[in-house]
Specification:
The structure holds two protein chains of two kinds. By secondary structure, chain A is mainly beta. Chain A is built from no helices and eleven strands. The chains are: A mainly beta, B mainly beta.
């Protein structure tokens, strides 16, 4: 089955700087890679996603890159703000069974 | 975007009792829903896939007799934790995909925090 590794587990960034979170996946059949933001006591919220036929996608301050050959994908947050503080999860999904498998999460702290 | 709602958002129950958690897709029909479990400061672990009109598919290590899943309609799946014990205390989250929405995208409920005392 699919295995998703995520690094780092904790990340502290000065407000205004950029944050990068990296993930790798094991199953080459995975074709969809969402990123979720989870605030304390709430369910995950989809913030950006990328499909396997695309190498990069951007939405305002958030971007995701995908390297299918190396089986890794990354989340980039620019001009970080205090409200970006949360836990971020990468995930991978295989088309054949619709399951979404999560990485272990990254706790992002934006320092004032 | 599509909305998935869970009820209750939190519940406290006595050890040995059963508790039911509901997951509803509010503006779309979901033939498949997924149930996850999340311990504090940990990731979401897939428990089972809930299929409308048929039996749920459980992940390895998840007791199907303890975590009963019923997906009786296209907008409702329920998870019943039977004979709950303190170690079942966790954050339970469901998700569903809108078959008419963006391909592959899944939406999550707000979660249910279960505390067994």
């Amino acid at each position: 089955g699919e295995n998703v590794e995520q690094h780092p587990s904790t990340l502290s960034v000065q407000e205004g700087d950029s944050a990068v979170i990296k993930c790798t996946y094991s199953d080459s059949a995975s074709n969809y890679f969402p990123w979720y933001k989870q605030e304390l006591g709430k369910g995950p919220q989809l913030i950006i996603d990328i499909r396997s036929n695309v190498g990069e996608k951007k939405d305002q301050r958030i971007a995701v890159t995908l390297n299918k050959t190396a089986k890794h994908f990354s989340l980039h947050i620019t001009e970080t703000q205090p409200e970006d503080s949360a836990v971020y999860f990468c995930a991978a999904r295989m088309n054949r069974d619709d399951k979404i498998i999560f990485g272990k999460g990254t706790r992002l702290h934006i320092l004032p | 975007g599509a909305v998935v709602s869970q009820h209750p958002s939190w519940v406290i129950c006595k050890s040995g009792t059963s508790v039911k958690i509901e997951c509803r897709s509010l503006d779309f029909q979901a033939t498949t829903m997924f149930w996850y479990r999340q311990f504090p400061k940990q990731s979401l672990m897939l428990m089972a896939t809930s299929n409308e009109g048929s039996k749920a598919t459980y992940e390895q290590g998840v007791e199907k007799d303890k975590f009963l899943i019923n997906h009786a309609s296209l907008t409702l799946s329920t998870l019943t934790v039977t004979s709950a014990h303190p170690e079942d205390s966790s954050f339970y989250i469901c998700s569903a995909r809108d078959p008419m929405g963006p391909p592959l995208s899944a939406f999550f409920g707000q979660g249910t925090r279960l505390t067994v005392v």
